[in-house]
What does this fold into?
Amino acid sequence: MVILLFCGLVMPAHSLAADNLQQATVTGTVTDAATGEAMAGVNIQVKGTTQGAITDIAGKYTIANVDGNATLVFSFIGYVTKEEAIAGRSVIDMALNQEITDLDEVVVVGYTTQKRANVVGSVTSLSGEGLTQIPAANINNAISGRLPGTTIMQGSGEPGQQAPRIMIRGRSTLGALTDGYTNPLIIIDGVQGRSMDELDPSDIESLSVLKDASAAIYGATAANGVILITTKKGQEGRPRLNYQFYQGFMTPTIIPDVTNAAEYATMLSEYQVANGKNRTYSDEDIRLFASGEDPWEHPDTDWYGDLIKKWTGTAKHNLSIDGGNRGMTYYVSLGYKT
It folds into this structure.
């Protein structure tokens, strides 16, 4: 009986000692990763609990009775939230990075630039990084479906004739679409009247679409909207070499199932007989089309099969180098596509 009483007293003492080893007080300082200045008002919370603290004016915090295996969550408005495992430490310092949002994005508006948060008019912008995410052959295909309020219509798939029609907020004139009266004003690096087909998407720094009164500074020529394009420029420092490569494969979506020469001549003859008309091809012509005995007078050429491949490859290469020193910069780009 005495032994049992002794064990009952020892076991709670051992459990209490283990709890004291796991609980600890954590202190530290929170600073701005960019400036190194102390940050006041940062929220530090033990993950999964309501326990936490807020930094003082010197950026310091203290949290008592924290589990040594817990994780601290550091959060502050405008900064990236970070998590840090305690791992038995008593001092944990943290540097928070500012969170880049769309409101900080610089947008080209007319003859100047503004932050998106300060833009009052209707402006849609797309960065150069966003353009290069799609391996398009030209800038028109790269922006298709990515600019709200902008309609891009591809009228033909003929090689070399891939310039689409662009309308901003629909048609604003009664002129024919083919006359160019509905096209927006294109401005590249401040020069009006240039074509977007001249540019490689990899060489574009930013693209902005002005839709309303923000385009008024360009006068009547901007009645259908304005597309402003800024190309990349060199940055001071050592030369930087950039190479981009894309390889793809293409196939026609639909290839018509056409008749051969003998089938065409037969159907045409049946139609002409049914309508009381003179036949273009006689029975002998149809026989020669089918047999192939006279390829010069009665050819049977599969033009779709000879001119259109089921699969073909496409490739795009872009090599650029930029740099500069003492206020003078350079940017050289070379592109090739097949």
Observations:
- Residues 186 and 227 are 5 Å apart (CA to CA).
- Helices lie at 2-22, 128-132, 139-143, 261-274, 283-291, 303-307.
